[in-house]
Amino acid sequence: MMKLKKPKLPLILALAAASAALVPYPASAARAKPNRIAVSYVTPKDPAHQPIYDRLKEFRPLEKMKVILSPFRLPHTLLIKTEGCDGESNAWYDDGAITICYEYIDEIWRTAPAETTADGVTPLDARVAPVVDTVLHEFGHAIFDILALPVFGREEDAADQVAAYMALQLGKDESRRHIGAVAYAYMTEVKAAAPLQLKQFADEHGTPAQRFYNVLCIAYGADDKQFGDLVAKGYLPKDRSEGCEDEYRQAARAFQKLVEPHIDQRLVKKVLSRSWMPDPARRIPRQPAAGPSTQSN
After folding, report:
1. Collapsing DSSP states into helix, strand and coil, what is residue 155?
2. Alpha-carbon separation of residue 268 from 34, 54, 117, 140, 207 (angstroms)
3. Are 146 and 74 in contact (CB under 8 A)?
4. Is residue 181 predicted with pLDDT exceeding 70?
5. Are strands 295-296 and 78-83 parallel, antiparallel or unpaired?
6. pLDDT the model gives residue 297
7. How far is CA 35 from the centre of its chain?
8. pLDDT at residue 31, rounded to an integer
């Protein structure tokens, strides 16, 4: 019988090291901590965006988002920044950073109402809430990636649900103002859009009309008394409204099971004790058109 030689220790260590290198290092294995959000307003390249940059620096929305998202325990810092995107109206998460384009903010500000709407959407809320919603949406993408969270279904739909669910936790008055302004932005996009072509339904995002109804549904499902007028006024079809409580509960269960273990609950209490929506009496001057753009986020 052949006698096998005992492998030398250095060879064993080398093989072990090589095997370990083949095993991916999970993000959760790193020491996750709260307060790992950084923000930046990048100086605009296009002079037309300077007024937007100046107003953002004045209102400090990213600093507010930094505090709102501070309870999340992350293994590394997540950057949230605004910057020019060479004419593209967009927002995205990639490589540890959330980017909100000045072109996108310009588009939101130009389409906001000049006066408070009949449904109570103020000009300021119409400028602030859709941008906050976009940050929360992209933050959804970020935590799916950074925390390796499973997503069942389209990731864009899941990110929309994360954004709406989080906004609905900020208090009744503030969540009402936020949801109303986000719905206004979607409906404005619906009205301004050309008739949809078949290939547009292949996009990874839902259509603006679908996202309009989805955000109304999750809000109604969260509190059918606070948002009951959405059905009474015909904004949310009654047939759809009947399943909205289940839709909200599904989103809530997913968030509580997958996301809440990564949240510092002591910091959450501090965040929820504060008021986050801006004073509705304040105004942002209407922004002149900065040129054509295509919105996608």
Report:
1. helix
2. 11, 30, 32, 17, 33
3. yes
4. yes
5. unpaired
6. 65
7. 18
8. 86
Cα separation, 129 vs 135, in Å, equals: 10
Query: For the chain, what is the radius of gyration of the CA atoms?
Result: 22
pTM (predicted TM-score): 0.84
278/66: higher pLDDT = 66
Average pLDDT over residues 165-175: 92
Do the Cβ atoms of 106 and 126 come closer than 8 Å? Answer: no
Which range (35-44, 198-207, 222-231) has the least confidence?
A: 198-207
> What would the two tokens of residue 252 be?
């809530």
Q: Which of 136, 139, 206 is nearest to 178 (CA)?
A: 136
pLDDT tier, 15 (very low <50, low <70, confident <90, very high otherwise): very low
Burial of 263 (0-12, 13-18, 19+ CB in 10 A): middle
Whether 180 and 120 have beta carbons less than 8 Å apart is answered as yes
Could you give the CA distance from residue 214 to residue 161 in angstroms, rounded to a whole number? 8
- Across the beta sheet with 295-296, the strand order is 37-41, 78-83, 97-101, 89-94, 295-296
User: Is 139 in contact with 297 (CB distance < 8 Å)?
Assistant: no
Task: Break the chain into its structural domains and give their ranges.
Answer: 29-296
Residue 289: burial class (beta carbons within 10 Å; 0-12, 13-18, 19+): exposed
